[in-house]
Amino acid sequence: MTGQDDVPGVGAPEGAGEAPAVTFRRLYGLARPHLRPILAGTALMLLMSLVGLAVPKLAGDVVDTALGEATRSELRSVVALLIGLFAFIGFVGFVEYYLLGLAGSRLLLDLRGQLFRRLVFLSPAFYDRRRVGELLSRLGSDLAVVQGSITEQIPSGLQALLRFVGTLVVLFVLQTRLTLVALLVVPPVVLVAIVVGIRLEKLSKRERDATADTSALAEEVLAGIRTIQASAAEERSRARYDRRRLD
């Protein structure tokens, strides 16, 4: 059945094939109520990356000043600037962590509320195809994956991209030939990263599906524990759970 019984976040019904991929537009729609702290935290993360590019240069200046014929006053000035830079990075990092953590917690709470409200209005036919334990797992772990994608993975991806581009620019300015040689290594590394990423995504989906399946079995067994104990089926139930857990 489609339409009112389709619930985002719980996967496709058995036999229906793979669930459709979640688009950035869909993620944006989910994150929109919490967009301000997410954007602010992401901006601070990017700022921290840009400022961090200056740390190696300042550290080199400290060494050069210490080994050169600079005065103590000059050395103190360079060291104070380096310490101040570290303090600034630490403060910005704390604010960024707070904003993204706060937005992530509120987003996860919001997503769980939306999904639960959707679930309680679904038809009995939907629950004939779904087990309660599986839905509980989707309500927990799967939504946490969505929240992590919005408040952790996407900002971190942008930070890594900015850091890569910034480092590349600095290296081009300092050592153009050496940078061009180093860039020869980039395409194979990117290709390997893409292949590994696709493989990890498939494994992650299998892990989430297995967790949902195991949770459904545990809920089924515990809900009928009196019947199981009355029929002395405890060992059989344990064996079923172990098989499902180790598959």
Describe the structure.
With 247 residues, the protein is mainly alpha-helical. Helix content is 82%, strand content 0%. It is elongated and about 90 Å long.
Helix and strand layout, with pairings?
Layout: H1 24-31, H2 35-52, H3 54-67, H4 72-119, H5 124-129, H6 132-174, H7 176-183, H8 186-223, H9 225-230, H10 234-246
Put simply, the count of helices is 10
Terminal CA distance? 29 Å
What share of residues are in beta strands?
Answer: under 5%
Low-confidence region ranges: 10-18
Radius of gyration: 26 Å
Major sheet attributes: none
TL;DR?
By secondary structure, the protein is mostly helical. The chain has helices spanning 24-31, 35-52, 54-67, 72-119, 124-129, 132-174, 176-183, 186-223, 225-230, 234-246.
Highlighted features:
single chain; 247 residues; mainly alpha; 10 helices; elongated
